[in-house]
Amino acid sequence: MVVLLAILVGGAWWGWNSLTRSSAEANCVDQTLPNNRMVPKQVVVNVYNGGAKAGTAAAVAEELKKRGFNIGKIANEPKGDKVDVVAVRGATDKSPELRLVAGQLTQKATPVGDNRPDHTVDLVLGRGYKTLKVKGIPSLTVPAGSTHCLPIVRGTQPIPSGQDPN
User: Fold this and answer.
1) Are 155 and 126 in contact (CB under 8 A)?
2) Per-residue pLDDT reduced to its tens digit, 64-99
3) What fold does the segment set 39-151 form as a domain?
């Protein structure tokens, strides 16, 4: 009986610790930006096709990568939403990372703040999307001394040989 009671108490202790201590990694890190400027290398962009012709999201992602942005996902719009021209989603509709991405576009983007904790930006390309600016804005001024939660950029990890990633 004592052994069973010890197992029950040990299991309860382990369960409580597992519940109260999250092992989840941080999504972003609060930082003060050098020279009060946000630059593309500090922004992670997910590029989604929301009605544009096939291949548009990949082409735009490649161009944004050349400009220094970190590319997260390239896919069809995950919610299945169709967009008329272009939409930009981020933590808030006025967040600097969202405005920096919008500054790459020739067309006016619909900004949408969705309170995402990781501060990534979703760029959704619709059927009316035309092109990026030849030269988008290279950086964005932020208030002096302000802190911004910048996404943690994780490099891709090689898949061990003999393992199927799917």
Assistant:
1) no
2) 999 999 999 999 999 888 899 999 999 999 999 999
3) Alpha-Beta Plaits (3.30.70)
